[in-house]
Amino acid sequence: MGVLFRLLQLLGLNAVPLAGLFFAGWSPATALALYWCENVVGSALVAARIALHRRATRKRGHYRPQLGLQISGSLKVAGRTEPRDVAPKTLLAEFLYAVIAFSIAHGIFLWLLFAVMKVQVEPAQLRTGLVAMVGIQLVGFAWDAWSLAERPFAWIKAMAQRSLGRVILVHLAILGGMFLTASRPHPERFFLVFGALKLASDLASWLPLSLPPPDPSRPPRLVTRLAGPRFAEYWRQEATKERAANEDDERER
After folding, report:
1. DSSP letters spanning 17-55
2. Which residues share a beta bridge with 114?
3. DSSP per residue over 138-201, as a string?
4. Three-state SS for 72?
5. Number of other residues whose CB lies within 10 A of the CB of residue 148
6. Is residue 157 exposed (0-12), middle (13-18) or buried (19+ Cβ within 10 Å)?
7. β-strands 80-85, 72-77 pairing
8. For residue 181, which of 88, 102, 156, 246 sits 20 to 30 Å off, Cα-Cα?
9. Is the pLDDT of residue 41 over 80?
10. Which pLDDT value is given to residue 56?
11. What is the mean pLDDT of residues 46-60?
12. How far apart (Å, rounded) are the C-alpha atoms in residues 241 and 92?
């Protein structure tokens, strides 16, 4: 039931800008701006889920980085400059740092794109689309909120990973749309390319939820044949380490 609900939510969110463009006469700039707003609001609601889950469960996994974000800086000690890891140290901080950075980049790219194409966002159309999209997202938030305390840490971690991956894919879709329409920067043409790429990325992020998870202790057969038995042993060792880390994540702090 949960997988079907998320599929319907995904299709509904993608349908709002498409319906507005093709049936309500919205401008392509408004439709593209709605996609950016969807990312911002969706990321904020995922962050709220993470914060509520941390407060309700106090799982250890919340208090260490989980998304692989690496940020290095420098610190001057006794006249010497030494490297220093300045990456966020909790799941919530790590997630917020990444999505805020990408959202700012998305906004800059879209602003430049609108300037090149000489198009503008219509405020009235944007408000109408936002009401629909935010409404769909709030229904999804309410669906999850009532059972957050019963959810394992692995669930919220997977949600953060999927959400961040989706933000990155949307960024790549913007770049891909700009590349494919560079020779003829027509707003409608760009929107169709971007909309198709985004829908494909959304479906790709949903598919793993509907498929049975693979056994992490068994490496892919084709890779094992190509890399040999040493790789298979390495895979099993890493799977053992990851399983131990996942089990520790589920313990209360």
Report:
1. HHHHHHHS---HHHHHHHHHHHHHHHHHHHHHHHHHHHH
2. none
3. HHHHHHHHTTGGGS-HHHHHHHHHHHHHHHHHHHHHHHHHHHHTSSS--HHHHHHHHHHHHHHH
4. strand
5. 19
6. buried
7. antiparallel
8. 102
9. yes
10. 94
11. 96
12. 23
Rounded to whole angstroms, how far apart are CA atoms 104 and 140? 24
Q: What is the pLDDT of residues 221-232, one digit of tens each?
A: 766 677 777 777
* 154 in Cβ contact with 246 (< 8 Å): yes
Residue 206 · residue 18 · CB < 8 Å: no
* Per-residue pLDDT at 73: 55
* Residue 209 CA neighbour count, 13 Å, CB half: 18
CA dihedral 15, 16, 22, 23 (to 10 degrees): 110
- pLDDT value at residue 113: 75
Burial class (CB in 10 A: 0-12, 13-18, 19+), 44: middle
> For residues 210 and 206, what is the distance between their CA atoms, to the nearest angstrom?
7
Spacing of C-alpha 199 from chain mean position: 13
Which pLDDT score, from 0 to 100, does residue 19 have?
87
What is the rounded CA–CA span in Å between residue 17 and residue 30?
Answer: 8
Q: Tell me what pLDDT residue 189 has.
A: 63
Separation between Cα atoms, residue 191 and residue 33, nearest integer Å? 11
Q: What pLDDT does 79 receive?
A: 58
Structure-token match 């993470």, residue found:
50
Q: What is the mean pLDDT of residues 144-151?
A: 91
pLDDT band at 59 (very low <50, low <70, confident <90, very high): very high
Question: Which tokens sit at 168?
Answer: 């990155």
